[in-house]
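Long-time lurker. I teach an intro course on protein structure, and each term I like to show students one example going from raw sequence to a predicted 3D structure in token notation. This year I'd like something fresh instead of my usual example. Would anyone be willing to generate the tokens for the chain below so I can use it in lecture? Attribution to the forum is fine with me.
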Amino acid sequence: MSYLIAAPEMLTAAATDLANIGSSISAANAAAAPPTTALVAAGADEISARIAALFGAHAQAYQVLSAQAAMFHEQFVRALSTGAGAYAAAEVASAQSVQQDLLNLINAPTQALLGRPLIGNGADGLPGTGQNGGDGGILFGNGGNGGSGALNQRGGNGGNAGLWGNGGAGGAGGNATAAGVNGFSGGGGGLGGLLLG
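-- Reply from a regular --
Happy to contribute to a lecture. Here you go:
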């Protein structure tokens, strides 16, 4: 079994460093091109001209190869940056999943015994149903907001907080359909936490 550790910050830093190296090499190649590709013969004889032509041809071949290497380098840096982004996204998704799994593990016993979580906010009531908001966690958590009432329906009550948290707001009451009748009342707000809220 192989072990691989990939830190997105390190991959991003490596991609930046490689991009800087590529820029420096490209600048050096551009600076070297004019004096090496247009080499002047040392003398007026045929051998000097052939030597200058040979070195000029090698310099031009080098410039072609260095342009291809620069393209490959740019693709490699782009792939490394994309990989860093993919690792970062996977890490965030994994952390959220682990956090939710841990919260579910902590809340499962109290939810089963008492019908409310130990830690966490209560669920909001659905709009247009007059549903009450869920109670917040016994230790920490805000109560959920009550759902608004439908036509001819009262708004839902806000959920209560436990020891620490704010009670949920009551839902707005629905409108009356009969002429001359007032709209229905909104739901009551949830109780704040016993210690703070």
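Some talking points for your students: DSSP finds two helices and no strands in the chain. The chain has a mean pLDDT of 87.
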